[in-house]
Amino acid sequence: MQAILRLDLAGQPRGWLTLQEAISAYARGDVVYGIGDSLPPVFGGIQRSSGLRSSITLQPIIAIEGRIIDGFTPPLCNRTLFRRDDHRCLYCGNQFRRSELTRDHVLPVSRGGTDKWENVVAACKRCNWVKDNHTPEEASMPLLAVPFRPNQFEWHFLAKERVLADQMDYLSQQFRADRDWAH
Ligand SMILES: [Zn+2]
Known about the structure:
Elements: E1 4-7, E2 13-17, H1 19-28, E3 31-35, E4 42-46, E5 53-56, E6 61-64, H2 78-84, E7 101-105, E8 120-124, H3 125-131, H4 152-158, H5 165-172
Parallel strand pairs: 1-6
Antiparallel strand pairs: 1-2, 3-6, 4-5, 7-8
C-alpha cells in the first residue's frame, strides 16, 4: 500500500500516512501544501447535489497544520536496523534475509551496553553466537562499519519498504553521502 509522507510546516518528516488518513487531512483542510507529482485520483461517493462522483487528487508529500516539535528520536526496531545495515552482518559482511539476522549489542547489555542505535548492529546468528558476551576487540571481530543513529530523513526512508521517487528525492537531500543506500 502506497503511503504519503507527512511533513510539519518546517518541512521536517513527521511520519507516513495511509491514503485514507491523507484524504481525511485534506477533507479537514489541514493540508497546507503538497510536493511532488499527483497520484492517480482516489474516488469517493456520489455527491447528492450534483450527482457526480467525488474524487481527490493526492500528492506524495503533504505538509500538515500543527505544532512544530523540536528534535526527533528515531524509534529502534529490527526492521529499520537491518535496513540501515543493508541486511549485512557487520562482522562477516555477508548479506542475509531479515529472518536470519539478529540485533547484536556491540557492548553487550550484560556489560552495561545500551539498546540504542549507536550500540546495535545487524549480525548473523553465527557471528552473534561466536561473539557472545564480548566486545568486538575481545572477540577479534572488528566491526565493518560504525553504527549510527539515522537522522529524521534517513529514518523515514528506512522505515518504509516502498518509497516513491518524489519522496526519495525529498528525503535523500538530507542523507549523509556515505550511506550505502543514499545513491
Ligand atoms: Zn556474520
